[in-house]
Amino acid sequence: MGSKERILRQKEETRANIIQAARDIVKDEGWQGLSMRKIADKIEYTAPIIYEYFSNKEAILQELTCKGFCLLVRDLESAKASTTEPAEQLEAMWLAYWNFARDNREAYQLMYGVEMTCCTQRTTESDLPYQLITGVIREIMKDVNPTDIVIKQKYFTFFSVIHGLISINIIGNGLSNDINTQILKDAITGIIRYIKE
């Protein structure tokens, strides 16, 4: 391996180490505990080295947000591919969304601003969940030829209920898993039934 390739690989590794250190700090201390200095200390680098890769903490948060949306999209695509029936796809996708938020609490908090300020810069990644889910909603409603506004309203009906339940669980002690599952399934089934009419 040539020196250029080795230097490039080391830079990629350092960047990945910075992101992983940020994740580890957030898991241990929450988002309020994240700082450039703590990241540098965790990976045993000086703070100026961190600034060579990320101009500020916001840039790290933006990177983490993009990575979070990429993981969410992967889960949504997998859920969609699990069946060919649009109503079943929609249910599977919202359950995958719920599971993502449960399993990636810190990432979800950052992505959607639960108990913190989310990154305000929109990216291609942040638009993909909306596009995937509204595509399935449009397929379910194809017989009535819905407008974009109607599709958007249906999406936000789902999002409001599911994001609200997620937020209750993140902010408070939450509900039991059985109660959450029942509320989630009732909401998803009810909304799907409503949009199919």
From TrEMBL:
Signal peptide: none
SUPFAM superfamilies: Homeodomain-like, Tetracyclin repressor-like, C-terminal domain
HTH tetR-type domain mapped to chain residues: 12-72
DNA-binding region location: 35-54
Alphabetized Pfam families for the sequence: TetR_C_33, TetR_N
InterPro entries: Homeodomain-like_sf, HTH-type_TetR-like_transc_reg, HTH_TetR, MT1864/Rv1816-like_C, Tet_transcr_reg_TetR-rel_C_sf
Keyword entries, A-Z: DNA-binding, Transcription, Transcription regulation
Gene Ontology terms, MF aspect: DNA-binding transcription factor activity; transcription cis-regulatory region binding
PANTHER family: HTH-TYPE TRANSCRIPTIONAL REGULATOR RUTR, TETR-FAMILY FAMILY TRANSCRIPTIONAL REGULATOR
Name by which UniProt lists this protein: TetR/AcrR family transcriptional regulator
Source species of the chain: Flavobacterium zepuense
